[in-house]
Amino acid sequence: MQDGAYYALYSSYDRLNSETDYSAWADFFCAAFEKFGAKKISSVLDLGCGTGAMTFELRQRGFDMTAVDISCDMLSVARQRAAETGYEDILWLCQDMRSFELYGTVDAAVCCLDGINHLCGAKDLGKCLSLVHNYLEPDGLFLFDVNTPYKFRTFYGDNDYILEDEGVTCCWQNHYDSRRGVCDFYLSVFTRRSDGAWDRVDAVQRERCYTEKRLRGELARAGFEVLGFFGDYSFGAPKKDCERWYVIARAKK
Asked: Is the Cβ–Cβ distance between 202 and 220 less than 8 Å?
């Protein structure tokens, strides 16, 4: 995990992800809870919550929310929003996905926007999955997404991109090492100040490419039953050119 990289992005994170339809994604989670839940789900962990966009969507739908993120700056934005919106009962924890501790178990856990891909160390994924399993109720659900190998090869690769929104520009250069299955992102974020001048912050992020076989194996070793890999919010099977897998697993205890 790269807390320093998120420090560079926290103030502009939501604007750069403005096209993400969190409401539709939260509806998908709710549909999955109904479809696969062994019992009514009331408590949910949002792992790698960022500034809390999904946390708030699920809280608005009546779930008791716990949210974990490694970036204190991201959580500062989330807590401010919680105070403004009246959702001050959300528990925000500044912790690492590989070593987090909760105060009790939850009925379900979610991890959005390829948070799992940010687990780049050889044992990181196993550590995270073991902890999620530990804090889930028996038959609890874990729902997460990952960027697919197809996306790493084609969209990421060694391509360059520029993301722009009002008052913020992100220059994004990729380098994908297919042998190691790791992609490095070299970011330069420009944010316009109120006086018209621009601030620049540089950062490096990294993501690991996980195959379906590797994910299924790690989930099984952590005590999960894989319920499905999906390519969209309607539980459709992934296509060959699918850029994101939505994975649903059940904790067996």
From this structure: no
> Per DSSP, what are the bridge partners of residue 192?
198
**DSSP string across 50-112:** TTSHHHHHHHHTT-EEEEEES-HHHHHHHHHHHHHHT-TT-EEEE--TTS---SS-EEEEEE-
Supply the pTM of this predicted model.
Answer: 0.91
pLDDT tens, 140-156? Answer: 999 999 999 999 999 99
pLDDT digits (tens, 9 = 90+) for 82-107: 999 999 999 999 999 999 999 999 99
Q: Which of these, 96, 138, 94, lies nearest to 118 by C-alpha position? A: 96
Mean pLDDT of 45-63: 96
Across residues 107-118, what is the average pLDDT? 96
What is the dotted CATH code of the domain comprising 3-148+210-251? 3.40.50.150
Enclosing H/E stretch for 161: strand 160-165
Among residues of the chain, what percentage have pLDDT more than 70? 93
Asked whether this chain's domains 3-148+210-251 and 151-207 adopt the same fold, the reply is no
Crossing angle of the two packed helices 53-60 and 72-85, in degrees rounded to 10: 30
Give 68's contacts (C-beta < 8 A, 6+ positions apart).
45, 46, 47, 48, 49, 93, 94, 95, 97, 100
Q: Where are the alpha helices (DSSP H) in the chain?
A: 3-9, 13-16, 22-36, 53-60, 72-85, 124-135, 149-151, 212-221
- Domain 151-207 CATH (choose: 2.20.25.110, 2.60.40.1180, 3.40.50.300, 2.30.30.140): 2.20.25.110
The structure tokens 């009546």 sit at 62
Is the separation of the CB atoms in 229 and 121 below 8 Å? Answer: no
